Amino acid sequence: MAYFEHEGCTLHYEEYGHGAPVLLVHGLGSSTLDWEMQVPALAAHYRVILMDMRGHGRSDKPRQRYSIAGYSADVLALIEHLKLDRVHLVGISMGGMIGFQLAVDQPQTLSSLCVVNSMPEVKVRKPGDYLQWASRWILGRLLGLRNIGRILGRVLFPKPGQADLRRKITERWATNDKRAYLASFDAIVGWGVQERLARITCPTLIVSADHDYTPVAMKESYVKLIPDARLVVIADSRHATPLDQPQVFNQTLLEFLNAVETTPQDH
User: Which part of the chain is the AB hydrolase-1 domain (predicted)?
Assistant: First the structure.
């Protein structure tokens, strides 16, 4: 367990293993804990770095507006703090948005990018979009975080054999700071870098669950905008793919990372 300072905020990170650095970035309302199924598999081959984004986990929760660009700046600050040349970045959901932001703003910092169940913009355009985000916004303010976690658990892990995962997400969500959680939610809505995806220069893997919140077709449309990208769809999975299909996800990610590491890159 380690900490560093950036722009007056103390941020928590962890490191495991040795080798080329792989930085794991969690999603909204989550923390380093949600990569528990990945750390052992990755750390056998790589230097695995996890961080809690501001407002989450063991990092500070400053009373301020949060933004995806600000989160990306925190990730860049950690890379510089650790004196790393470039990293393999893996981000899920909001973490994927942070990865997209860093990849278009600072492409030279990434050896590769893996984005899991995410998208390069969250623009509210159609009536259905307004309804979807307004309902989440209202629920976030009306319900306690434990209740939100309980609802999410049933949505993400509906199978009878997933009771332990449902319990974990309920308990973990309950530990969130509500104000920071809502500020992070607000950071997502309206954000986007889709028009700049051509700036991403590193090999890119887009991972989509077959039952993610957003359809596979949406990922198929934006993967074409990234110069060196491919899409992998993981079957029988929902939004939390690293937790509900850890073996398949780990194998997919390791094959991608190993291929990048053994292929000469033009920088």
Answer: 21-124
Tell me how far apart the alpha carbons of residues 260 and 145 are, in angstroms, rounded to a whole number: 39
pLDDT tens per residue across span 39-91: 999 999 999 999 999 999 999 999 999 999 999 999 999 999 999 999 999 99
Q: 2-122+193-262 maps to which CATH number?
A: 3.40.50.1820
d(Cα 197, Cα 193) in Å, to the nearest integer? Answer: 7
Straight-line distance from the first to the last Cα atom of the chain, in angstroms, rounded to the nearest whole number: 33
Report residue 264's pLDDT band, with 50, 70 and 90 as the boundaries: confident
Tell me the residue type at 122.
V
Length of the chain, please? 267
pLDDT in tens, 171-192: 999 999 999 999 998 999 899 9
User: In the chain, what are the domain boundaries?
Assistant: 2-122+193-262
Distance, CA of 57 to CA of 27 (rounded, Å): 11
Distance of alpha carbon 140 from alpha carbon 124, whole angstroms: 18
| DSSP result, 185-204 | HHHHTT-B-GGGGGG--S-E
Which DSSP helix (H) or strand (E) runs through 152?
helix 145-156
